[in-house]
Amino acid sequence: MSPPLWIACYLIATLGHMAIWIASFNRLHAANSHFLIRKSSYGFLAIAVFLVPAIFSFVAYREFDFFPDAMTSFPVVFTAYFSACLFFGLYTATIWMYRRIVDHQNPSIQSAHAISRYDFGGVATQANRSAFERSFAAIPGNQIYRLNVETRHLNFPHLNSALDGLTLTLISDLHFTGNICQAYFEQVVEKANELDSDFIIIAGDIIDREYCLSWLKQTLAELSAKHGIYFVLGNHDRKLKNETLIRETLRGIGCRDVADRWLPIDFNGSQIHLVGNERPWFGDETRVSSDPFEFSNGDLRICVTHSPDQWKWGRERGCDLTLAGHTHGGQIRIPLLGPVISPSYFGVKYASGIFCHNGKVMVVSRGVSGEEPIRFNCPPEITQIKIQV
Ligand SMILES: [Fe+2]
Questions:
Q1: How far is the CA of 203 from the centre of ligand 1 (A)?
Q2: CA 230 to CA 247: how far, in whole Å?
Q3: CB 138 within 8 A of CB 367
Q4: Residues 309 and 365 in one domain
Q5: From ligand 1's centre to the CA of 172, what distance in Å?
Q6: Residues bordering ligand 1, an ion, CB closer than 5 Å
Q7: Tell me, what's the pLDDT at 123?
Q8: N or C: where does the chain have the smaller number of CB atoms within 10 Å of the terminal CB?
């Protein structure tokens, strides 16, 4: 094998090695169940992704002069792993190219998509930010305050004509931690209210720290929508000792909990059926019947869930539209490569955007915030969906 071919193989195998470990990390975090997994995995991932290839490179360079003939001298376990990495690297590159050629982000069901960009960095003063927040905000290119308001027009010709023009605002992953100042969230709420939607849907990961509970009453209580505000919780909401406190506080400010239940709502004489799913962190989805009562043809069924992994569950219950968050769009998107970290059983496939399967649609928000106040090439988002019949 010529040196250039060996180097190409080595680079593809390195890509495969990284892809194996990152893919494992994403799937391990899809359920995010164990304390040790949550706390140790970032360090473990860094070692696996960066240190191991560095050691391999050093060994290959020092011992074998970077030539492939030396492969025969490698231990059989290394050769087998190298071959697996080579295969997985080719597979990853093929999938990456396929996703860029086939534009799954622009299905025919979406007739229009507009983005308005805002920068709320000006409201974050020295006084209202922690030193932690200031140090992250100072990183060049960090987009934590650069909210995008995305408007998506979705066509559902089979629905009752009374639902034409219905609007929903999706807000996800607020992450009230104190790591991003309250003033930013006040601007987000103001912008959401300006959209004047019929419904506001909050798709989980609302609060991480108990001392931010007052923010629910001070900031989130300002949200308003003509036909109400509905929510489910996400994995980070488990960080409070008692998640019931979040539910009670949200109910106290007029939000409605849709977890594990169907909620029929009258709209212009037609019916909307909301159903919530907080799996795999809360509740029991088997409690929710796939068809609990008579649906009329033309009714709109909406599944509200934190994890996009529950889309199949929503589709099985006939939901025309599933609204999710959780994956934050990856939070850091590498130019050309896109998102890398996405805690989902599907990896980065559902990191954010719109997805379509047999006429059923899922919209995944990049979210408003995150536990770590850092975003590159991945601005925070609220989304308004306009239903067209
Ligand atoms: Fe989140």
A1: 9
A2: 11
A3: no
A4: yes
A5: 8
A6: 173, 205
A7: 82
A8: N
Taking the centre of ligand 1 as the mean of its atom positions, its distance from the CA of residue 230, in whole angstroms, is: 17
**Domain carrying residue 305:** 110-388
Q: Quote the ligand 1 centre to 364 CA distance (angstroms).
A: 12
Tokens of 204: 């989980």
**75 lies in the same domain as 206:** no
CATH code of the domain containing 274: 3.60.21.10
pLDDT tens track for 331-359:
999 888 889 889 999 999 999 999 999 99
In the reported structure, the alpha carbon of residue 182 is separated from the centroid of ligand 1 by a whole-number distance in angstroms of 17
The Cα–Cα gap between 272 and 263 comes to 8
Higher pLDDT, 5 or 286: 5
Q: How far is the CA of 156 from the centre of ligand 1 (A)?
A: 29
Read off the pLDDT band of 225 (50, 70, 90).
Answer: very high
Q: pTM of the entire structure?
A: 0.88
In this prediction, residues 48-55 reach a mean pLDDT of 70
Query: Are 158 and 93 in the same domain?
Result: no
Q: Are residues 270 and 324 in the same domain?
A: yes
Are the C-beta atoms of 128 and 161 separated by less than 8 Å?
no
Are 220 and 321 within one domain?
yes
Helix 3-31 and helix 76-101, axial crossing angle in degrees, nearest 10? 80
150 and 30 within one domain: no
Q: Are residues 233 and 303 in the same domain?
A: yes
Residue 350 CA, ligand 1 centroid: distance in Å = 14
The pair of structure tokens assigned to 134 is 């200031």
Q: In degrees rounded to 5, what are phi and psi of residue 270?
A: -110, 175
Beta bridge partners of 355: 362
Query: What pLDDT does residue 106 have?
Result: 67
Query: 165 CA to middle of ligand 1, Å?
Result: 30
Compute, in angstroms, the gap from residue 365 CA to the centroid of ligand 1: 10
Q: How far is the CA of 234 from the centre of ligand 1 (A)?
A: 7
Distance 252 CA to ligand 1 centre (A): 23
Please identify which residue in the block is written with the tokens 């059926």: 273
Residues 169-212 pLDDT 10s: 999 999 999 999 999 999 999 999 999 999 999 999 999 999 89
Q: What is the pLDDT of residue 298?
A: 85
CA of 124 to the centre of ligand 1 (A): 21
